[in-house]
Amino acid sequence: MAESATLKVGSLERMRMYENVVVSAAWLADRLGDEETSVIDVRDGWEFDGIGHVPGAASVPFAEFRSETGDEGMLPGAETWESLLSAAGVGPEDHLVAYDDTHGVFAARFLVTAELYGHPPDRLHLLDGDYSAWNQAHETTSDAPARATTDYVVREPAHSPLVEYETVAEALDDDGTVIVDTREPREYDEGHLPDAVNVDWRDLVDDETRGLKPEAELRSILDDAGITPVRRVLLYCNTARRISHTYVVLRSLGYEDVGFYEGSLTEWTERGGPVETA
To answer: Which segments constitute the Rhodanese domain (predicted)?
Structure first.
């Protein structure tokens, strides 16, 4: 097979991996009770227990799957991740559906972490709309989930979106790459990577439905900022939480070349990277 044809096949395979990244409440409702579907609630434990949760969901609070070793927001470590998913009853090939009550930004971080630790990308799903949206039309419970524990083991991902400081620095002068700052405009104005475009992750969310805006509107917002599928996209924020949501959105829209700068502005400034202000 010619190299160009091989690349095309690989590209199509990656696109299929992300076909069902964002799923509706109806999609999830049809799969509740399925042994191969693990629903993960990343809110605080008191919310899970006191307010209620999606039936069968396991509680994996956001604070438990981020590093606490001085690099706040970074990956929690393989052993920690294995322990969390084993306790939640997650199997190696399960469909993981994550939700929070903050428009999906914390749930997206969970899903990106799962991808980086080797869970199959085609089995990672963000609930479109958060717990508040689910609660309006679907059953909730305060009962503890009945799933048995597992022995979850991390794997090397087939493809990692992570990019390092050096990659981002080299991309500053690359017209084929767009660097995207997903923070609030106020933060962007105070200091951002040179020539980065600002698309606040909340710009992609519908406040009324608490889920994503319609696809046509999403594409219009992104196109207006020069974030098109034909360009390489490098994402950053402060500590890799907000870029997780934008990463999931771009994947759901079929963007293929998306880089995830986990170190984000925290590492960038620590290493003396150039910064512009408004």
So the answer is: 33-143, 173-277
> Which of 119, 137, 155 delimits the end of a domain?
137
8 A C-beta contact, residue 124 and residue 96: yes
Tell me the pTM. Answer: 0.91
Q: What is the CATH number of the domain that holds 246?
A: 3.40.250.10
Structure tokens at 43: 């809110």
* Residue 25 domain boundaries: 15-137
Q: Are residues 124 and 216 in the same domain?
A: no
| 231-263 per-position pLDDT tens digit | 999 999 999 999 999 999 999 999 999 999 999
Contacts of 108 (CB under 8 A, 6+ apart): 98, 126, 244, 245, 247, 248
Q: Which amino acid is at 183?
A: R
* Residues 94 and 36: beta-carbon distance below 8 Å: yes
* CB 72, CB 211: distance < 8 Å: no
H or E element that contains 103: none
